[in-house]
Amino acid sequence: MDEITRLKVESAVFRGLIQHLQKRTDAQNIDIMNTAGFCRNCLAKWYLAAAEHFGESVTYAHAQEIVYGMPFRDWKLNYQTTASLDQQKSFEKTKPLHAKITVVE
């Protein structure tokens, strides 16, 4: 696969993941984080890191809006639930497996 096609494919995969997560408002970030080691906020942080790496000025709030499909405060107000004690314990237990925010070229 040539480089341009690879970039197009990877971009389409990212957009598909974002669209899926925007539809799955029932999937709480803490549950995604506990299971997969990353969440919507991690995606926003990767977006921000990549934008800055390539010389673009993007705020974290704007990156979150791209990922969430709305301002984060709106998503949080409408969809985020309070984490249970079990969710919080799992979060702490899985911390070593959580994503590291880096730029991969």
Brief description of this entry?
By secondary structure, this protein is mainly alpha-helical. The chain has a single domain (3-97), classed as SMc04008-like (SMc04008-like fold, Orthogonal Bundle), CATH 1.10.3340.10. It has helices at 3-23, 29-36, 40-53, 60-68, 72-79, 85-94.
What gyration radius follows from the Cα positions, in whole Å? Answer: 15 Å
**Low-pLDDT residue intervals, each spanning 5 or more residues:** none
Helix content: 55-70%
Number of helices: 6
> What is the strand content?
under 5%
Keywords:
6 helices, mainly alpha, SMc04008-like fold, single chain
Describe this structure in words.
The protein is mainly alpha-helical. The protein has one domain: SMc04008-like fold, CATH 1.10.3340.10. The protein contains 6 helices and no strands. It has helices spanning 3-23, 29-36, 40-53, 60-68, 72-79, 85-94. Helix 2 (29-36) packs parallel to helix 6 (85-94) and helix 3 crosses helix 4. The longest helix has 21 residues, at 3-23. The chain is globular and about 45 Å long. The mean pLDDT is 96.
Strand and helix map with partners:
Elements: H1 3-23, H2 29-36, H3 40-53, H4 60-68, H5 72-79, H6 85-94
